[in-house]
Write a structure and sequence with these properties.
Blueprint: H1 4-7, H2 10-14, H3 21-24, H4 53-63, E1 70-73, H5 76-87, E2 94-99, H6 104-111, E3 115-120, H7 129-134, E4 140-146, H8 158-167, E5 171-175, E6 197-202, E7 215-218, H9 221-230, H10 238-247, H11 251-273, E8 278-281, E9 288-293, H12 296-305, E10 311-312, E11 322-326, H13 330-341
The protein binds pyridoxal-5'-phosphate.
Pyridoxal-5'-phosphate (PLP) binds next to helix 5.
Pathway: Lipid metabolism; Amino-acid biosynthesis; L-histidine biosynthesis; L-histidine from 5-phospho-alpha-D-ribose 1-diphosphate: step 7/9
Subunit structure: Homodimer.
Modified residues (N6-(pyridoxal phosphate)lysine): 205
Length: 347
């Protein structure tokens, strides 16, 4: 890759970050009179740890990376936005991303006034690394990959991803929001070989904590320092830090949920295949399936009428006629199948 400093926006390199009271003093004290906090209403009166060290230690013990390689934010969405703010010069740089994929990369690009170049996946949603690289130029700072990909559900081929990592001089983001549902190992293991790699993971899916908002970015310590410099000083509140710390003790519960959801996914797929107007179910390594049906808009509206909400993706590139269906609880899945079976009768 190119030298990291040549990829970073000049104003960010030169930035002197806000120094908060808790940055200057670490440890226990008899009286904390440094941050203009209210002495009452313990423990909520105190500002949270700006770098979330305790939580990071607990996470990195499981992920087997040092804490210096981890950024924690208000969902993965915060890390996505930081990628733009740290590396991409507005109205000058561009990023390249696969399409279709998660919508936030493009929204963040638009907010930061960065050109967003979409490279279509193949018709079966596989990645062509050469085609992706051909869309880059001297102003391409970042490539966005997502594996397993949303909304298609498939894992990107490791050799194609590797080809991107080995041949692109900028930053490569691999979003692994659904990695817990997939048989593949995380790209986190490859961090030491690729100083330009940023891996995103989240507590929003397998951990069942979407409402709590905690996202993770794994990267070289140099990149993490840049993220820390630019983020809001207290970006993860006390309630989130404490609650996630507590949940990390019950990883077996998460594993049991994943196991159940994977079983339910297979059951859902086999039931869906029995429905005549279901044309294709794309292979999924995530907790959802992309399903091609005859007249997606009509099926979508019918489900809404019956008070079941799925995601209509029919207007998304390569997803014509497709609904994205999240694997729910056994009861929710039974209800979905029951209602879908009555759809033809309603015509
Ligand atoms: C759901 C999802 C996320 C999660 O974002 P959070 O801000 O952590 O909730 C990230 N990336 C992809 C591809 C997703 O589908």
């Amino acid at each position: 890759m190119a030298d990291l400093t040549s990829l970073v926006r000049k104003n960010i390199l030169a930035l002197k970050p806000y120094s908060c009271a808790r940055d200057e003093f670490h440890g226990e004290a008899s009286a904390f009179l440094d941050a203009n906090e209210n002495p009452f209403n313990n423990p909520y009166n105190r500002y949270p740890d700006p770098l979330q060290w305790k939580l990071k230690e607990s996470i990195t013990a499981k992920k087997k990376v040092p804490s210096t390689h981890v950024f924690l934010g208000n969902g993965s969405d915060e890390a996505i936005d930081l990628v733009f703010r740290v590396f991409c010069e507005p109205a000058q740089d561009n990023v390249v991303a696969i399409a279709p994929t998660y919508g936030m990369y493009e929204v963040s690009a638009d907010i930061n006034q960065i050109e967003y170049r979409k490279v279509h996946l193949n018709d079966d949603f596989t990645l062509n690394a050469k085609k992706l690289l051909a869309a880059t130029d001297d102003h391409t700072k970042v490539i966005f990959l997502c594996s397993p990909n949303n909304p298609s559900g498939n894992l990107l081929d490791r050799h194609e991803v590797l080809h991107v990592l080995e041949n692109f001089g900028g930053i490569v983001v691999i979003d692994e929001a659904y990695i817990d549902f997939s048989p593949e190992t995380s790209w986190i293991e490859q961090l030491r070989h690729f100083p330009n790699l940023i891996v995103l993971q989240t507590f929003s899916k397998a951990w069942g904590l979407a409402g709590v908002r905690l996202g993770m970015a794994f990267a070289s310590p140099e990149i993490i320092l840049l993220f820390n410099k630019v983020k809001y000083p207290y970006n993860v509140n006390i309630l989130t830090q404490d609650l996630v710390l507590e949940h990390l003790q019950f990883e077996s519960r998460k594993r049991a949920w994943v196991e159940l959801l994977l079983k339910e996914r297979e059951r859902l797929i086999s039931d869906l295949l029995k429905i005549a107007y279901v044309k294709t179910i794309y292979p999924s390594s995530a907790n959802f399936v992309l399903v091609k049906v005859h007249d997606a808009n009509a099926v979508y509206s019918y489900l809404v009428e019956k008070s079941i909400v799925v995601r209509n993706r029919t207007n998304v590139i390569l997803c014509e006629g497709c609904l994205r269906i999240t694997v729910g609880s056994p009861d929710e899945n039974n209800l979905l199948i029951k209602v879908l079976k009555t759809y033809n009768e309603s015509l």
